[in-house]
Design a protein that fits this description.
By secondary structure, this protein is mainly α. The protein has helices at residues 3-91, 97-176. Helices cover 95% and strands 0% of the residues. The two termini are 18 Å apart.
C-alpha cells in the first residue's frame, strides 16, 4: 500500500475512532437522561398517589358531611314532631305559657350551638380547600418548569444529532473524493 493511501487510512481511522468516542459519550448522556426520566416518572407516580389520597380524603369528608346532614335532618324531623306534640299539648292546656317559652328558648340555643359548630366545620373545610388549591398551583408551576427543562434538553439533543449528521456527511464527502 502506498504511503499516501496509508496516511489517508490512518487519518480516516483516527476520525472514525473520534466519532466512536463521541457516539459513546452521547450514549452515556442518553443513559443519564433515561435515568433522570425514570426518576421523574417515579415522582409523577408519587404525585398520583398523593392526588388519589387527597381524592379519597375529599370523598370521606363528603360522606361525613352527608351523614351529618342526614343526622341533622332526622334531628330536625324529630324536633318538628316534638314541636307538633307540644303545640297539641298546649292547645289542650297541658303546658303553661312559661314552659312553652322556656322550651322554645332552649331549642333556639341548641340550634344556635349547632349552627356555630357547623360554621366552625365549614371554616376548617374552607382552609383545607385553600391549602389544597395552593398545593395544586405549586404542582402546576413545577410541571411547567419540568416541561421547560425537557424542551431545553430536547433542543440540546437535536443540536448534537445535527452536528453528528454534519460530521458524517463531511466524512462521506472526503471518502468519496
Amino acid at each position: 500500500m502506498d504511503p499516501e493511501t496509508r496516511g489517508l487510512l490512518e487519518n480516516l481511522t483516527t476520525r472514525v475512532e473520534a466519532l466512536t468516542r463521541s457516539v459513546e459519550m452521547i450514549a452515556a448522556h442518553v443513559v443519564r437522561i433515561d435515568e433522570r426520566l425514570d426518576k421523574m416518572d417515579a415522582r409523577f407516580d408519587a404525585m398520583d398517589a398523593r392526588f388519589d389520597a387527597l381524592e379519597a380524603r375529599f370523598d370521606a369528608l363528603e360522606a361525613r358531611f352527608e351523614a351529618r346532614f342526614d343526622a341533622m335532618d332526622r334531628r330536625q324531623d324529630g324536633l318538628e314532631s316534638r314541636m307538633d306534640r307540644l303545640e297539641t299539648a298546649m292547645r289542650e292546656g297541658f303546658l303553661s305559657v312559661s314552659d312553652r317559652f322556656t322550651t322554645f328558648d332552649m331549642r333556639m340555643r341548641a340550634l344556635e350551638d349547632r349552627i356555630d359548630r357547623i360554621n366552625g366545620t365549614l371554616e376548617v373545610l374552607t382552609e383545607e380547600s385553600r391549602a389544597v388549591r395552593a398545593d395544586m398551583e405549586q404542582v402546576r408551576k413545577d410541571m411547567a418548569n419540568l416541561n421547560g427543562r425537557i424542551d431545553i434538553l430536547s433542543d440540546d439533543m437535536r443540536q448534537r444529532f445535527r452536528g453528528i449528521t454534519d460530521r458524517m456527511v463531511a466524512i462521506e464527502q472526503r471518502l468519496a473524493a
